[in-house]
Every structure is written in structure tokens, then in C-alpha cells.
Write a structure and sequence with these properties.
alpha/beta; 12-stranded mixed beta sheet; 410 residues; binds nicotinamide-adenine-dinucleotide
Length: 410
């Protein structure tokens, strides 16, 4: 390890202190993960060098997780991996195989829960040269803040005809008989419980607002289904607006409920089904989106598809209070592509650019994004993108990485 390396730390005032040679843990990932890592690491290092010369450099530290960890350590997510990420704060990962029949339901969920990474952040923008199913994909430029710890994902479910489901129904009948009568087929119903809290909502909406303010975004849209789920999704909306008034001095526009911040930022809301129409019909009206876990899942895939970027969209899971953040390729392990030097590393690279921004290395992030955009626009792309457009040159994973480096500023 470079003897000038240091760890990133969270200062008491809530800011990251990032040394010039920060130790950043990375998980290579399973399946196509190694192909992607091998091609991406030189690109990330070159982007940092192009922005800062020899002054700054990432000191990568490999951590084990997934199949590789299971094969060598007998654990899908070794404690050492969690401990190192906890200590180093910021990390990046490739795709991980979901263990079948193991004790862990999903490694991604385990990482999110273990570090309380309450924001799933997904920027969605169009890259010139990507084939999209809509006429004006360039009008999409949104950043989705999806709540990551609550909602139906909390995993409180009782399967139909189980003793638990029967117990739950009996309790409901006893305590709230008027509600129990609303269940049409009680004895063959499964049940799911959806917790949505004020604290969980506030920390997510606060992060979305701060992001919008720091990045001069024009609006934050709270996306919910509060017309039906009044005390969960409806409260999400109300708590979001309350927070904007209380902590940021936002005031009503006309009769409300939309609010305007002193700097001009607008906070508004939209019911989720209408939002799915909005993103097709008026995408330019939405900029930062704050939403609940399940809505966020639907909306981020729909938006990524709209810009043709479902396979190349980046993502991050962040706790803005502790500073913990894991940046990740959003696709799976693509086992059929593993070891063939054909996988597209763009999702991982754009996640790396998000990570560089998160640690305040914006010039390096911008250089990486611009070089990737230029490479795609030039028609030199990996097979998944080449097959969608005529006249493109198909490059292998590593060659695509080299092409991106050739587009970095000298
Ligand atoms: P997948 O994303 O691996 O594959 C879906 C399709 O997309 C396949 O045709 C694949 O070839 C293609 N694809 C994916 N990544 C690509 C890339 N970088 N370049 C070119 N083409 C790419 O999804 P899956 O097949 O449902 O899942 C495979 C495994 O990955 C499972 O074990 C699943 O649990 C896991 N998974 C992990 C993550 C993660 O770690 N974030 C996410 C989703 C799935």
C-alpha cells in the first residue's frame, strides 16, 4: 500500500475529509465483474490523473464478497469486508451473485442494511448515440432518491394459509373488526406490512433537497401513492412538505401544496401512476425525485429504459449522516458473458464517476463522464450497444476502456 494513503473520514460538522491518496475498497464482483473491473480501473485512475496529475490517486483495496468470498473464505459476505467498508466509508462494487439457499437473502440488501444506506441514488440522463424507444430521450435528466430501508421491502409478510397469516387475521378481527371485514377472502390471503416512518421519510427527502440545492436543480418531486395509502405514502408526501417548510424556509406557491424555497427551488408532488405518464409526456418538468422504496424501483427502471440506458445506468447507496456510501454497477453478473471480454463496463464507470463527485473530485468525475460520452457518441461501443445501431464498431470490454482513456483530456 502507498505509504501516503489515508482513510476518508466524516468530520463532526458532517463533511467528508478526503485525503489526496484515499484508500477506497472495491469488490470486483462475480460473473462479468472481473472483466469490468480490469477494464475500468485504468479508466478511473486515468481520469483522476488527467484532472490532478500526480497530486491525487486512489489507493484501491480489494475486498471479498459473493462467490469469490464463499469459495475462498466460506462466507458470502465476510465480516472483514463489512468492517473495512465501515472504516473506510466509501466503496465501489461490481455485480454479485445472489446466493441460492444460503443464509443471506441478497448480498446487496445485506450491505444496505448493515450500513443503513438509506438513500438509493440513481441519476438518469441520455447519452448521445444510445438507441432509445422514445423520440426525445435527451429531455430526461433526473436524479432519483429512492428510500432504501422501509416500505414493503422491510420484509414483513405472512404467506397465505400459514399459521402466521391466520394469527394476524384473528388479531385484526379482534382489534379492528371494521377493517377485517374489508378483506375479501381472509383465509386464503397473504399479508404484507408496509412501514413508512417520519424519520425515514425526512432523512430521504432532506438528502434529495440538499442535492437539489447543491447542484442548482430547479425542482424536487415527491412521488407517492398517497391517494390510496394515506398513512404511509400520503404521510410521506406531508412529511416531505413539512420538512421543506421547517428546515429550509419553503413557502406555499398560491394555495399550495407546492412550495418554493427562498432560492427559487420548487418542491412539488405527483401520484406515482401519473408520474409514469409524466416521465413520458413532460420529462423536462422533473429534476430531482424523492420517492418510497417500491415506487423508486419501478420509476428508476422505467426512466433508465426511456434513455436506452437500462444496462448502463449507475447507482449508489448512501447514508449521508455517517458518510457511508457504496457505488455499484446496477446490472447483474451476466454469467454468460463472464471471462469473454464482451461486457459493457459503463454502469460501473458511471458509478465510479458518481463516487468521484461524492468525494469532491468533480473535475475527475466530469472528465470520466465526458470521455465516456464521447466514446459512445463516436460509435465505438461494446456488443450490447453496437447491436442496436448501424455503423457502430464493436469493441471488447478492455478495448472500450482504452478508447475512453484516449478521449480523456491530456
Ligand atoms: P443480469 O443483469 O446479469 O443479466 C440480464 C441481461 O443483461 C443478460 O442478457 C445479460 O447478458 C445482460 N447484461 C447484464 N450486464 C451486462 C453488461 N455489463 N454488459 C452487457 N450485457 C449485460 O441479470 P440476471 O441474469 O437476472 O442475474 C444474474 C445474477 O446477477 C443473479 O445471481 C442475480 O441475483 C444477480 N444480480 C445482481 C445484481 C447486483 O449485484 N447489483 C443485480 C441484479 C442481479
Amino acid at each position: 500500500m502507498n505509504d501516503r494513503s489515508e482513510k476518508i473520514v466524516m468530520l463532526p460538522q458532517g463533511e467528508l475529509r478526503v485525503p489526496n491518496f484515499p484508500v477506497i475498497p472495491h469488490i470486483v464482483g462475480d460473473g462479468c465483474g472481473p472483466d469490468i473491473w480490469e477494464a475500468s480501473r485504468p479508466v478511473i485512475d486515468a481520469a483522476v490523473q488527467s484532472a490532478y496529475g500526480a497530486e491525487r490517486r486512489i489507493i484501491w483495496r480489494e475486498l471479498l464478497a459473493g462467490q469469490k468470498a464463499y469459495d475462498t473464505r466460506g462466507a458470502w459476505l465476510p465480516e472483514e469486508t463489512m468492517a473495512t467498508i465501515r472504516e473506510c466509508l466509501v466503496g465501489i462494487k461490481g455485480p454479485l451473485t445472489t446466493p441460492v439457499g444460503g443464509g443471506i437473502r441478497s448480498l446487496n440488501v445485506a450491505l444496505r442494511q448493515g450500513l443503513d444506506l438509506y438513500c438509493c441514488v440513481r441519476p438518469v440522463r441520455y447519452f448521445d448515440g444510445i438507441v432509445s424507444p422514445v423520440k426525445h430521450p435527451e429531455k430526461v435528466d433526473m436524479v432519483i432518491f429512492r428510500e432504501n430501508t422501509e416500505d414493503i421491502y422491510a420484509g414483513i409478510e405472512f404467506s397465505a394459509e400459514s399459521a402466521e397469516a391466520r394469527d394476524f387475521y384473528m388479531w385484526l378481527q379482534k382489534k379492528h373488526p371494521e377493517r377485517a371485514t374489508k378483506i375479501r377472502f381472509p383465509y386464503s390471503s397473504g399479508f404484507g406490512i408496509k412501514p413508512v416512518s417520519r424519520e425515514g421519510t425526512e432523512r430521504l427527502v432532506r438528502a434529495a433537497i440538499l442535492y437539489a440545492l447543491q447542484n442548482n436543480r430547479p425542482s424536487v418531486t415527491l412521488v407517492h401513492k398517497g391517494n390510496i395509502m394515506k398513512f404511509t405514502e400520503g404521510s410521506f408526501r406531508d412529511w416531505g412538505y413539512e420538512l421543506a417548510r421547517r428546515e429550509f424556509g419553503a413557502s406555499p406557491i398560491g394555495n399550495g401544496p407546492w412550495l418554493r424555497f427562498p432560492c427559487g427551488l420548487v418542491i412539488k408532488d405527483c401520484i406515482c401512476d401519473a408520474f409514469l405518464q409524466e416521465i413520458l409526456l413532460h420529462p423536462a418538468d422533473h429534476s430531482v425525485v424523492a420517492t418510497l422504496n417500491l415506487n423508486g424501483d419501478y420509476c428508476s427502471d422505467a426512466l433508465a429504459a426511456q434513455v436506452g440506458g437500462i444496462g448502463i445506468s449507475p447507482g449508489a447507496n448512501i447514508n449521508y449522516v455517517t458518510g457511508h456510501a457504496i457505488f455499484e454497477a446496477t446490472h447483474g453478473t451476466a454469467p454468460a458473458l463472464a471471462g469473454k471480454d464482451v461486457a459493457n463496463p459503463s454502469s460501473f464507470l458511471l458509478s465510479a464517476a458518481m463516487m468521484l463527485r461524492y468525494i469532491g473530485w468533480d473535475p475527475a468525475a466530469g472528465a470520466l463522464e465526458e470521455a465516456l460520452a464521447k466514446t459512445i457518441a463516436s460509435g465505438q461501443v461494446t456488443a450490447d450497444l453496437a447491436e442496436q445501431r448501424s455503423g457502430a464498431t464493436t469493441l471488447g470490454t478492455r478495448a472500450f476502456g482504452k478508447a475512453i482513456i484516449s478521449h480523456l483530456p491530456a
